[in-house]
Specification:
The protein has 259 residues and is mainly beta. It is 10% helix and 59% strand. It has four helices and 16 strands. About 5% of the residues have low confidence.
């Protein structure tokens, strides 16, 4: 559950950028740590050409996590950039966990999920406290990649929003609010990032009353720091901190820049 949420926040949502004639690219690499020990890494690339965008990424467990819980995968998102922001047309996730493959595919139309598919399908019956995913809940909810890159003309508008995320299984909102600024350093890139507090709000695809969900909703301390990418008005995460019942997970950028 916790690693799933971190993965959902790792990447970014291109919201509206004005169409550009020349292709623009943005690259970001991240590391995830638990009690200061690296447990995973990820790398993402985005390309904007005219009104079209293409986001791709890869991730894998590292260190002891790779020994006891080996996980790796790729993501791919395609869509268009309109007046109000980015709208994905397709999202594809391919992964392997413990030697077992899996995949998630989501198809969108006019900014809404119209179809999603997970393989292998869970054969376990849903308990009575399970909140099902409905098409109504999926309206204007984007994949983790498209949902967490922000478009803002200046720093004051970065935290004034709610991230609406659906990863193929769980539908959640992260309501952002301002939490100041912080310096950051990622490879050769240094600057000042905007910090947002993020309030976890489950919507669908979860077990109501779950201890993990209750903790994340009521007590978890979640902060996301965004920095300008240099591509149009897009901002992307450079640091994430998620406090849980079992400790604090941290994500931080090791490379960050656009072209």
């Amino acid at each position: 559950m916790l690693m799933r949420l971190i993965a959902a926040l790792v990447v970014a949502t291109p919201a509206a950028a004005a169409p550009m004639s020349a292709p623009r690219e943005f690259k970001a690499d991240y590391a995830i740590s638990y009690y200061g020990v690296r447990i995973a890494k990820s790398s993402f690339r985005s390309r904007i050409e005219g009104e079209k965008f293409h986001l791709s990424g890869s991730f894998s467990s590292t260190g002891l996590a790779a020994v006891f819980a080996p996980t790796s995968g790729t993501t791919d998102v395609k869509g268009r950039i309109g007046a109000k922001g980015a709208e994905p047309s397709s999202y594809a996730l391919r992964y392997t966990t413990g030697g077992k493959p899996g995949q998630t595919d989501i198809v969108y139309a006019k900014g809404n999920v119209v179809r999603f598919d997970n393989k292998p399908e869970s054969k376990k019956p849903k308990p009575a406290n399970f909140v099902p995913v409905t098409l109504e809940a999926l309206k204007a909810a984007f994949d983790p990649l498209t949902a967490s890159m922000i478009r803002a003309s200046d720093s004051s508008g970065v935290c004034a929003r709610t991230l609406r995320i659906f990863d193929g299984g769980m539908r959640v909102d992260f309501a952002l609010s301002p939490a100041g600024e912080m310096p950051f350093s990622a490879g050769k890139t240094k600057g000042v990032a905007v910090k947002c507090k993020a309030r976890f709000q489950p919507v669908a695809g979860y077990h109501k009353g779950s201890k993990d969900i209750e903790y994340l909703s009521r007590k978890a301390l979640i902060e996301i720091a965004f920095a300008a990418t240099g591509v149009a008005d897009l901002w992307a995460p450079v640091a994430i901190s998620l406090g849980s019942q079992v400790g604090t997970f941290k994500l931080y950028a090791t490379q960050f820049g656009g072209s």
